Amino acid sequence: MKVAIGCDPNAKKLKNEVALFLKDIGHDVTDFGSDDPIYANVAIKVAEAVANEEYERGILICGTGIGMMIAANKVNGAYAANVTDVYSAKRACLSNNCNIITLGSQTIGNKLALELVDAYFTCRYVYNKRSGPKVDAIVEYEKKHIKK
Question: Residues 100, 81: contact at Cβ < 8 Å?
Fold first, then answer.
């Protein structure tokens, strides 16, 4: 799977560890950087690349993951979830069809971060009657109300 990854300067160590983990399990990872102190710039670049389907999924990392999530979700077609536990990491994919996850380098340990990434990447969204209409409603709202 083609994966875009980026972070703020504080999360560079975790980003490098996550990227190596993904490569080790067979993914093609592109690093969008970690030196820009304005995390929104990196988040938007990754989100645009994922939304434009240049990459299948993205990972963004900052102190809490929240800022990256907010910035990424401003991009049409980007659906980012901040994950802090394995169940949420799986549901981000299975229930919500998120194409980006965000992690907090200062709120979770490196071991948990790798478990969250593994949980997210072992899942595939399959349209179903329970989650499908909910995801459809989000996408339809975006199409009608959010300008490109």
Answer: yes
H or E stretch covering 144: helix 132-145
**Domains: count for the chain:** 1
Return the CATH number at 54.
Answer: 3.40.1400.10
Active site residue 62: yes
Q: Could you list the pLDDT tens digit for every one of the 148 residues in the chain?
A: 999 999 999 999 999 999 999 999 999 999 999 999 999 999 999 999 999 999 999 999 999 999 999 999 999 999 999 999 999 999 999 888 999 999 999 999 999 999 999 999 999 876 778 778 887 788 888 888 876 6
Give the pTM. 0.92
Task: Say which of 7, 62, 93, 98 is annotated catalytic.
Answer: 62
Provide the residue range defining the domain that includes 28. Answer: 2-145
Q: Is 64 helix (H, G, I), strand (E, B) or coil?
A: coil
